[in-house]
Amino acid sequence: QVQLVESGGGLVQAGGSLRLSCLASGSIFSINAMGWYRQAPGKQREMVAFIKNGGGTNYADSVKGRFTISRDNAQNTVYLQMNSLKFEDTAVYYCNLNQLRGAISDSYWGQGTRVTVSP
Question: Are 2 and 99 in contact (CB under 8 A)?
Fold first, then answer.
């Protein structure tokens, strides 16, 4: 099993910044990608950003140019630097880890950290 623990959420004014962290532990052996998803009240969970094992990144259009995902492979930690936050970024942010067991892809989720952006 893999455990993911997020931290760094909180309340911030629009235009401000936050940095989320996600520490992975447990049975980690072949990470394919780590990333961040978010779920706002009344909405479906959506991808925010992910980083592949080789370092390639992908971002949702709504956060491009404002958010940056990075990863410390040695620490099995992924970060999300969020700048120029907007009210619509308010959501619970979830860390995700995807790893391969041969041909099988396993996906793990953290408990989530709440980000609230005041107008």
Answer: yes
